[in-house]
């Protein structure tokens, strides 16, 4: 493991909402894996595996790496850079990497301000991340910027249901969810993906109500897509 990169030790974002979100994840980091243990075993692990089976070889980026739940699925032979903006979550990921002896470049970094040149990565992955990024469109555009124009972006996300009954209930409950763990449950993530200019290649509905989706997209950065 190459450890935490020096250039990412200072935060690029001073936004108040970003600070609040970071503080929430720092607060729950110690309990995060235990809180999600059951749903991880029953659902999320299977969906993660399905995502990573599609990821090609090459130099890839995982944003919002958290405690490292995707670590065991990384493609053999790929170089992976993994970032998170929560120091305490990243410390747990660091211990996970050391325990497995994995080769991963870890960096403390905000998804809204990725400190990498344009078109650096062959692919990028985010799992259950854009529910909590304060400015999700900005984060998605940053992700597209650092991935090569023909590179692939894979998103495993939960979002607001489009059904007339469930969607409004999620709107009502969202402030409670955010206060408890920092994650919005009513994000319109498909709309945000389109607004960010990503070229959607496929969308797999993983649950009733369209709440959980696996999205495959192309960066599209450069040309008309890059003129945002």
Sheet with most strands: 7 strands, mixed
Radius of gyration: 16 Å
User: What order do the strands of the largest sheet run in, or round the barrel if closed?
Assistant: 3-2-1-4-5-7-6
The CATH superfamily is Vaccinia Virus protein VP39
Name given to the CATH architecture? 3-Layer(aba) Sandwich
How many distinct folded domains?
1
Per the CATH scheme, the topology name is Rossmann fold
What portion of residues belong to β-strands? 15-25%
What features would you describe in this structure?
By secondary structure, the chain is an alpha/beta fold. The protein has 8 helices and 7 strands; from the N terminus they run H-H-H-E-E-H-E-E-H-E-H-H-E-E-H. The chain has a single domain (6-222), classed as Vaccinia Virus protein VP39 (Rossmann fold). It has a 7-stranded mixed β-sheet, with helices on both faces.
């Amino acid at each position: 493991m190459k450890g935490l990169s020096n250039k990412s030790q200072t935060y690029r974002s001073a936004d108040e909402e970003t600070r609040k979100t970071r503080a929430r994840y720092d607060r729950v980091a110690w309990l995060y894996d235990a809180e999600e243990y059951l749903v991880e075993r029953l659902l999320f692990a299977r969906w993660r595996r399905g995502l990573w089976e599609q990821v090609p070889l090459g130099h890839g980026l995982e944003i919002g790496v958290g405690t490292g739940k995707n670590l065991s699925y990384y493609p053999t032979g790929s170089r992976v850079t993994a970032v998170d903006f929560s120091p305490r979550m990243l410390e747990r990921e660091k211990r996970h990497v050391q325990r497995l002896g994995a080769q991963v470049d870890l960096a403390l970094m905000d998804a809204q301000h990725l400190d990498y040149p344009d078109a650096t990565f062959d692919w990028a992955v985010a799992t259950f991340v854009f529910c909590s990024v304060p400015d999700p469109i900005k984060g998605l555009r940053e992700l597209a910027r650092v991935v090569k124009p023909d590179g692939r972006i894979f998103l495993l996300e939960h979002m607001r249901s489009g059904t007339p009954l469930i969607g409004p209930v999620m709107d009502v409950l969202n402030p409670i969810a955010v206060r408890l763990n920092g994650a919005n449950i009513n994000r319109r993530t498909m709309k945000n993906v389109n607004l960010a200019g990503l070229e959607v290649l496929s969308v797999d509905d993983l649950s009733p109500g369209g709440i959980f989706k696996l999205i495959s997209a192309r960066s599209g950065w450069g040309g008309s897509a890059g003129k945002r």
